[in-house]
């Protein structure tokens, strides 16, 4: 069982590490796009709704696809008043309990609720309401489901690591 948990956790961690690095590169592209947009707007008095929407879409992708990476590296928001002084096993219990009671149900609710949301958007071939805006709005809405799926996977990886810690395994 320990080998399966190790392998699973390592595989999920690898996927979210890659996704996090891709999200990091998207931040570079987003920064370049924003500079381009600002130069066009203030120097050439030209604004393009598609460029502005693409900035928001990239931000959403970075945030959603980077969530699993953030959880993997334990960089999410946490109140560490007590947690910082806990032993590794106490931290494992807190992480396991929080994952089972809060993270997994929340991810499942968002995924389940997001599916019809994306289906409606896809079926109506939803696009931007702004003239010159981006088409295929369902594509960006799909990222909600995808991002929460990878966050859910990382949550299960975190759960596996907590179980391994509780079973006396050293952190890897």
UniProtKB/TrEMBL annotation:
<keyword id="KW-0812">Transmembrane</keyword>
<dbReference type="GO" id="GO:0005886">
    <property type="term" value="C:plasma membrane"/>
</dbReference>
<feature type="transmembrane region" description="Helical">
    <location>
        <begin position="23"/>
        <end position="44"/>
    </location>
</feature>
<dbReference type="Pfam" id="PF04290">
    <property type="entry name" value="DctQ"/>
</dbReference>
<comment type="similarity">
    <text>Belongs to the TRAP transporter small permease family.</text>
</comment>
<feature type="transmembrane region" description="Helical">
    <location>
        <begin position="92"/>
        <end position="115"/>
    </location>
</feature>
<feature type="domain" description="Tripartite ATP-independent periplasmic transporters DctQ component">
    <location>
        <begin position="30"/>
        <end position="161"/>
    </location>
</feature>
<keyword id="KW-0472">Membrane</keyword>
<keyword id="KW-1003">Cell membrane</keyword>
<keyword id="KW-1133">Transmembrane helix</keyword>
<keyword id="KW-0813">Transport</keyword>
<keyword id="KW-0997">Cell inner membrane</keyword>
<feature type="transmembrane region" description="Helical">
    <location>
        <begin position="56"/>
        <end position="71"/>
    </location>
</feature>
<feature type="transmembrane region" description="Helical">
    <location>
        <begin position="135"/>
        <end position="153"/>
    </location>
</feature>
<dbReference type="InterPro" id="IPR055348">
    <property type="entry name" value="DctQ"/>
</dbReference>
<protein>
    <submittedName>
        <fullName>TRAP transporter small permease subunit</fullName>
    </submittedName>
</protein>
<dbReference type="InterPro" id="IPR007387">
    <property type="entry name" value="TRAP_DctQ"/>
</dbReference>
